[in-house]
Amino acid sequence: MSSTKFYTRGSRIGRRDFLKLMGAGAASLGIAGIAGCAPKPAPTPTPAGPLHLDFTVWSYSIETILDNIKKFQEAYNNAFEVSLTDIAWGEYHSTMVARFMAKTPTDVCYNGGDWLPEFAKAGWVVPLEDHFPQALDYKPDIVGYALSDVTYKGKLYGLPYYSDITSFQYNKKLLEESGVKGPAETWEELTDQLKFLKGKGFEPPMVLEIAAELPTTFDNFTAMAYGRGGDWLDENFDPLFEDPTGPMGQQLKWMVDNYKAGLVAYLPHETDVQKQLNTGKTIYTVLWNYNMAALNSKDISPLAGQFQIALMPGATHETQGMAKMYNMTQMAVDRGQDVIDACWKFIEYFAGKHEGEYKVAERWAVEKGLGFGIKSLFDDPDVQKAFASFIDPVVLKEQEAKARARRHPEWEAVFNEFARPQIVSAATGEITVEEAIKSMAEKAKELKKQYA
Questions:
Q1: Is residue 295 one of the residues assigned to a domain?
Q2: What is the pLDDT averaged over residues 228-244?
């Protein structure tokens, strides 16, 4: 079964309107009365119809996206017709590469900071600021790690759709009832807590979303290693993790040791992690922060209200921050100025302000608990109320201040796909930490040389 789906949400000329137009055209071609020789009236121009845009996303809350498209079209009096294509998250990168190479019509698309350099260098997406200088007005209102992800070679390529941090999450109620004073502040302290909790009957006391085919595996590992002060690459995209006793190697060793001891279990998807946490048999996890909205939702979580976040364990308590964005494609530019202008209206409606408000970004935050890359939304009363219902805003603010984006080379997607199986193999003990670190470092050097 195909994982790519197509939708059309637009205004087409209806049959009745079509017949009216045909009637008007026939009348304009009629001959004047026999007795007169009046000149023929000028033909009535045929309306061009709505301008069509193709929008491509990964599969998340499609009903919300379709409704936002409907509202966008209504806001512009149905001058635009937008077709939506959604692709399974795990297949998004490879499918988009194939679409761009085949020139499958795509005007606006979701993208991430990890893929932006690749897509930009290939000429598939274009800088917004080159076509819309007014896009730069949004830069002061974008948080640092999000701005980093939507920028390539100093140019603003997109505006954030969703921006988030990876957080250290736990069941506060069960932890306190077990006699543990508070969440661990270091990974070593966490190991001691997990041993204690296992003795109390928690099985397993911690779960992680780890799967070789899942892009989030790379994100989760990165965030945990950031807590130790680690990083993948320097400013020149040379590896910083070659020493297996460094922060990245330390975190891999922590994972394999705790996995072998039965203190940590690996599950293939965030929804599986949520289900396990809701059994009441597991205390800790590391996930993208938006999962907190689901964990503390009374509609779907039997243990709603019990979950909280703490600072990422480690010496620095840093974590990873990122942004997903709306990009305009070169294909849209090639279609002409009318399409370019329509793309800006679409992107600004979805990511920027419409009628003075960040309407769509606020909707995602309030209804879905999605993070956002816009500073001023932190002061929005509706957003504050929604987020306070599932997360401690004080801890969230403290952790976000310690979040940083990865450095994204143009070969990151290839490296990511190579690194994930290495991380999983090491974390499960199939290969040694030294072997995983060595192979990933060699791959990074090889790719840098190849792409240079």
A1: yes
A2: 97
